[in-house]
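INTERNAL TRANSFER SHEET
From: sequence group
To: structure group
Subject: 3-oxoacyl-[acyl-carrier-protein] reductase

Please process the attached sequence and return the structure record in the designated field. Keep the field labels unchanged so the import script can parse them.
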Amino acid sequence: MNLSLSVDLKGQVAIVTGASQGLGQAVAVALGQNGAHVVCLARNAEKLAKTVAEIEAAGGSAEAMPCDVTDRAAAAAAIEQTNKTHGRLDILVNNAGITRDKLMRGMSDEEWDSVIATNLTSCFVCCRAAAGVMRRKKYGRIINMASISGLIGNPGQANYSASKAGMIGMTRTMSKELVSRGVTVNAVAPGFIASEMTAELGDVVMEEVKKRIPAKRVGQPEDVAAAVLFLASKDASYISGQTIVVDGGMVG
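Return from structure group:
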C-alpha cells in the first residue's frame, strides 16, 4: 500500500481491532509503515497472520493477537496485555464491525444484538480499557471507525446505523472526558469504500451507488487509512471529538 502522507510514529504502540481484512488491514499496514508497532486484533488467526506479514514485508513491526472483541473480558485483557508487554499504548483504532442488514420489521433480536455488540459495545470496552492506560501516560490517540450510515441512516440498517450513530455520540463524550489528559478521541465515517462488505452488494448496486457520489468513484481503503493516520499523529493534538467524513462528498 502506497500513501503519500507520512507521519512519525516511531516507538509508538498501536492496537487495531478488526485488522484481518478490509479497512482494518489497510489502517494497520499504514500505521506499521509509519513506524508504529501494531498489535492486530481479530478472530481469524490465519487472516491476521497475512496482515502481520504485509506490515513486516514493508519494514514495519507487528504481532497478531486473536481475539473476539464481543467477549468483553477478552477485549479488555488484550488492551492490558499489550500495555504489560510493551509498557505503553499510544494508539487505539476501533475498527471491528459487522452488518446484518434487514428491514426493521423482519430484523431478529439476534441480528440487532450481534451488530450492537460487535460495533458499539466492543468499542466502549476497548476505549474504557485503553483510557486507563493513556490517562496515566498523559498521551493517546483513540480513533473509532464509524460510518455515514450513523449520520444519515440507511434503509435495512437500523442495527448498523444505530451502532455507528452511538459510536459518534460516544466519541464526543469520551473526548470531553479525556482531552484534558492529552488523549484525543475522534471518529472516521467512511462512505462507500471498496471492501469485502461492499463487494457483497454486487456490481449493479455499486454502479448505482457511484452515481450518487459526487467524486464519481468508490473510495479505497487507503483513503480511510490516510485520515486515520493523520488523527493518530502528534500533529492532530488539537483535534478531538470530531467525526471526519471520508465519502467523496456524498453527505455534503
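Handover comment: The CA atoms of residues 95 and 145 lie 5 Å apart. The mean pLDDT is 95.
Transfer complete.
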